[in-house]
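BUG: 3D viewer hangs when loading the predicted structure for this chain

Environment: internal workstation, default settings.
Expected: structure renders.
Actual: progress bar stalls at 90%.

Input used:
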Amino acid sequence: MSALLRAFWMVSILKMAPQAIPASQTLLALVVVTHFAIGAMLSATALPADGAVVSALLGTVVMMAFVYLILMMRGQLQRFVQTVTALAGCEAMIGLIALPLTYLFHAGGGESGLIALFSLLIFAWNIMIAAHVFKHAFDLNSQQGVFYAVLYIFTSLIVGTMLGVST
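Structure tokens produced before the viewer hung:
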């Protein structure tokens, strides 16, 4: 287990490609459930419990659908399990790191410039990780990876806003 967590960490700090994460349906299921649970905890800082669950579910579904759609369009669906496992695992790790800051922010510390700065840095880190994963999974250059990462983040935000469950 520690080797797997280390692999997710190494992908998260851009030192390892997402191909290093095993392509396993069981691991995919475990990581997707973890992604959802951490998303629900993060959303619960700003939304009621039912809204947090819907927001987390939506975030997980949008992530999986986005990856599926792009891989399908590029004729690379065989990379779906590994790509989603890597992205969901890295996002779950970032979520755990962001959780204390998110609680502080929503508990009245939002006025703190330092909390806001750290939150912004974590958001930027999330975009960098998604760009890194997409670059490798979709066979892109770095700029195209960033484009897809920003498109993914904005898609998540827009869908959440349209459905009234964004935090």
